[in-house]
Model the fold of this input.
Amino acid sequence: MAEPPYIRHFTANNPGYMTLQGTNQYVVGREGAVLVIDVALSADSNLDGIIEQVEAMGAKKIDKILLTHIHSDHCGGALALRKRTGAKIGIHRSRAGYLGGEDFQYGEGDRIQFGGGELQVLHTPGHESGHCCFYESGDQVLFSGDHILGFGTSVIRPPDGDMTDYLRSLEKLLGFNISLILPGHGPLVGKPEAKIREYIEHRLMRQKQVLDALRKGHETIGAITQTIYVDVSGPLKNIAEFSVQAHLIKLIKEGRVKNEAGRYRLLDAN
Ligand SMILES: [Zn+2]
Done:
């Protein structure tokens, strides 16, 4: 399955262990003015790459820039693209003012027009509290930002990253008919429902591992991470620790775990 003809992408030259091959920046429109989802880099070469896609679609101009979230690999080039094209920048309400002057804000359920169609805003906190996905209901396409990636898993980094919200935001997507996911990083996802269920199951499996580690008497984030992510080292180890911490925070909220000065213990009946 491929992108419908009114959607194109240009992948930014910012590959890395967090960004996979780089950030996918999408151009969406059937006629006239198009919109762009996420702009990673302000370098001319990156803006040229996006504008070339717009021209290849036969579009006249970019009138909006939507941001899935405020991490720099998604919004780092937004101001530069606005300066060059006059496009208006939109951001989730909770992040108003973040870029020092966006042009409009959006929230759950809002409809945003592009030339020949519209996108529905789905607020999907978890990876970042203001994270949004954008849904095109005609072709059932979801632009998923960092909520769902082409491969691997999304980083949940507390305190802004929140595992309870993240799982809730995954469950929420199961309520929509989605035929294609276009992620912020990695290749498109042709079997969305299976992917969403796999993502949920993966997190629940990790949660179970955290509970098992606590049951065995591991009490610190470091010790728990060590038992679950045996082969992980370097910067990926930090990400694994964030994930463990995010699970512990979720379990504390649910009244299943307590934290005393960085030592985590299961509460009764667990
Ligand atoms: Zn990202």
